[in-house]
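Archive maintenance. Older records in this collection stored only the sequence; we are now back-filling the structure field for every entry so that each record is complete. The fields below show one back-filled record exactly as it appears after the update. Entries are processed alphabetically, and Helix-turn-helix domain-containing protein is next in the queue.

ARCHIVE ENTRY
Title: Helix-turn-helix domain-containing protein
Organism field: Spirosoma endbachense
Length field: 290
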Amino acid sequence: MKQPLRKDLEPVATSFIVKELIEPHFDPNWHFHPHYQLFLVEEGTGTRFIGDSIKPFGPGDLVFLGPNLPHLWRSDQAYFNKQSGLTTRGIVVYFSEDFLGNDFFGKQEMMLLRQLLNHARQGLEWNGPTRARAEAALKNMTKQPMGFDRVISLLTLLNDLSHASDYRYLTSPGYTNTVKPTETDRMQLVHDYVLGHFPDDLSLETIADLAGMTPPAFCRYFKARANKTFSEFVSEVRIGHACKLLINGKLSVTQISFESGFRTLSNFNRQFKDITGQTPSGYVKTYRQL
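Back-filled structure field:
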């Protein structure tokens, strides 16, 4: 039987959870949960899916997610090879909105923190000095014992993030999670198949059959849940892969376009500009300036 998409955390006695993750690969399941989640990637590369956002990730990637926002950090395929010797590491913090009491964030002094929590429902990411400070704070929290000091450390970090301006929203303004907690992981099957076959010519009929639907029904289903068409989703996966190859710098743009599933360089350049807002060369230049 397929597992439900909703993910519930194990009950703990503390007010919030701080975990160091060290695994061959990150959790490969597309899921959501009723907690806020702050996640830092320390080691590992891949593609992250957050709501209707698709982007490559690597060390230093820092995001903050609100409750019930579907997400998946899909490690690159090499991490699933047991003989590769590769590993992933990260730090994750989970907390509920009432982890300090029902009315704590409703107080006047908490206005900026309350705004931060509201913004997190669209997903947030940071770059630059804020990300560096948050990374240091998260690493420090993993060394602290459970207690008052750790609570103060989390509030101090959230306060810092609430004052920062170098953030970006991850999902589109109109995105909402339409997946019901009782719905099985049909979308997981789609994610897995596309991630395993995006360099090839993908057949809508094959994908629809995998999901147990007719092609028209699948297109309506996917658009309602992903806030984009299936073809747009595939293009973003391909461009996300191309971004990683560009950053790696070992292949030419023409080679990258074919490795990413595009059959013509002109189509690759056009879709790259549509999705990232930059040319491939402009993207590399921007990345090196971060």
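Update note: The first helix runs from residue 111 to 120. The two ends are 45 Å apart (CA to CA).
Entry marked complete.
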